[in-house]
Design a protein that fits this description.
This protein is mostly helical. The chain has a single domain, classed as Four Helix Bundle (Hemerythrin (Met), subunit A). Helices cover 68% and strands 0% of the residues. The chain has 5 helices and no strands. The relative contact order is 0.15. The model has no long low-confidence stretch (mean pLDDT 89).
Amino acid sequence: MELWRHLRAIALLPAMALAVIPLAILYWTEDVQIGWELDAPLAVPPVVLGVALLLGGLGLLVWTVAMFRSAGEGTLAPWDPTQRLVVAGVYRHVRNPMISGVFCAILGEAALLGSLPLFYWGVVFFVANAIYMPLVEERGLERRFGEDYRRYRQHVPRWIPRLTPWRS
């Protein structure tokens, strides 16, 4: 049952942003140019950058989902949130590593596939989350976790990671 909770949340949220929407964009735009259609030696850097961003973003996503499950006793989904405030691991450096991971993975897809429409999707994804986080998610976290979340928010940045981990 717990596995189903996590799989449903992953299928409905990051999978939509990383697979369904990009596939729809690529289908409608037919814009795939691996290596940006550059000649052989110049095509390598965008492919390497794309793979690095994609794998790094996916790794960050998996790590944060695992943190939500173990430390937070919940899922990434707003309808099945964590029961405890997660301030361990990567969350000691940045408040929204899951969104950062998905954003990096989308940029990786855009770089790897040489697709400007996918890059634009990444920008839309980031802007939407930059609006949603402070207006909805952070207010909800403050209501649920009170002073603990306010202290965490004061010391840990939303997007740009701290170099040293925050200790509560």
